[in-house]
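Below is how a single chain appears once it has passed through the pipeline. First comes the sequence as given, then the structure the pipeline wrote out for it. We keep one example in the README because the format questions we get most often are answered faster by looking than by reading.
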Amino acid sequence: MSLNRHLPAARVQPELELVGLTTKPGHLDRIDREALTRKFGLRHFADRLTEPWFRDGVDAAVIGTPPDTHYELTMLCLGMGKHVLVEKPLAGTVDETRRMIEAARAEGLALGVVHNFQFARAPSRALALYRAGRLGELRALVGFQSSNRRRRLPVWYRELPLGLFTDESPHLLYLMLAFLTDATPRCIDVGPPIAQSDNTPTHVLAQFESKEGIPAVLNMFFTGAISEWHLAILGSERTAVVDLFRDLLVELPNDRGHESLDVLRTSLRALGGHATGFATSGARHVTGRMDYGNAEVFRRFTAAAIAGCGMPGIEAEAGQAVVRMMEHVNEAARGRHRQE
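Resulting structure:
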């Protein structure tokens, strides 16, 4: 993420100057430093955060390390007076996020989290449709994920509390919270671990609900043959379906009596919307303009660090809300293990 998403997103911010990169001991030899210097202007490389160039010459740090290191590294950087932008999830527990927020406030520093997909083209269009009333009254949210573990994955995910769920669920959770800010848990079912060496559960089925009774259902399966991430926003007049990987939106009208012509119209709209979105996203991918909202994350973080602006959608409190939802799932998993 640091090399393929964060650095490119930071490079296009005119107010930012990329200075250096740190990684854990042993990783520096695997990095093409000359190429990174040519591409991003990085001048320094290190395996610790105590180097003078970082301690004395850097205003902000971006943390793209595994989730179980976020708290310690963030507190270290905040203690050195750095603004901090952290990959999702913000931390491992709500208590850790509280300490991070308090430390940032005490020092007057910006603390943000990379909740990027909400700024990608398709999700942002879906949010705009909802806020403009185009979907009608919100009736439900459905987040769906199928994961094929044969795809390229970080080597460290198996050791996280719930494995791949911990690393990937924040995306669907913060998108749900963008529509239902007050969603709280109703019922949660967590499957057994996939293997002794992998803490990832077979599945997570979780239902959240707003104060008005609007449900948000999260369905995640980690033993699938394909990898797909989707979010469906069900309105009284229209339904919007977001394909996160392809960054495309399919908007479907009310199918009225579900007669033959209504079904045909829905099918044609679905096929046409998918084909158009796929072509547009494909062109952006080929031309290197598919950034899944990361540039907007860095723009907001930069404005907060320089001018003290707010960071709607990526403020630490938004990260804390996601971690709180994840803690409910963790507790449900612990309850299952106790029963077994």
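The chain is about 40% helix and 20% strand.

See the next section for the split statistics.
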